[in-house]
Design goal:
Strand order of the largest sheet: 1-2
CATH topology: Arc Repressor Mutant, subunit A
Number of helices: 4
Largest sheet: 2 strands, antiparallel
Distance between the termini: 33 Å
Order of helices and strands: HEEHHH
Number of strands: 2
Number of domains: 1
Oligomer: single chain
Mean pLDDT: 90
CATH class: Mainly Alpha
Structural class: mainly alpha
Bound molecules: FE2/S2 (inorganic) cluster
Low-confidence stretches: none
Length: 81
């Protein structure tokens, strides 16, 4: 499996099960600059299902943390001399 295929499969993972909102929907907003859990919930509709965000909030936080770590590692790589 190549990285593009892996990316597509990851994007299909459901983050908010109550509303059936997939990872790719969150990543689209994160790439556009959305940077907080509350903003992501507002942009996607996540957190408004029957569990009121108990299920998806930790997964949204993980997506944001992973994105932040990616940015840090990119910065370290870029400025590593
Ligand atoms: S999993 Fe997102 S509101 Fe329940």
């Amino acid at each position: 499996m190549n990285s593009k295929e892996r990316q597509i499969i990851e994007g299909l993972k459901v983050v908010c099960k109550c509303k059936n909102i997939k990872q790719r929907d969150f990543l689209k907003h994160i790439k556009a600059g959305v940077a907080t859990i509350e903003e992501l919930k507002k942009a996607t509709g996540a957190g408004s299902g029957t569990c009121k965000g108990k299920g998806c909030t930790p997964r949204i936080a993980e997506l944001l943390n992973n994105r932040a770590l990616t940015r840090v590692s990119t910065i370290n790589y870029t400025y590593n001399y």
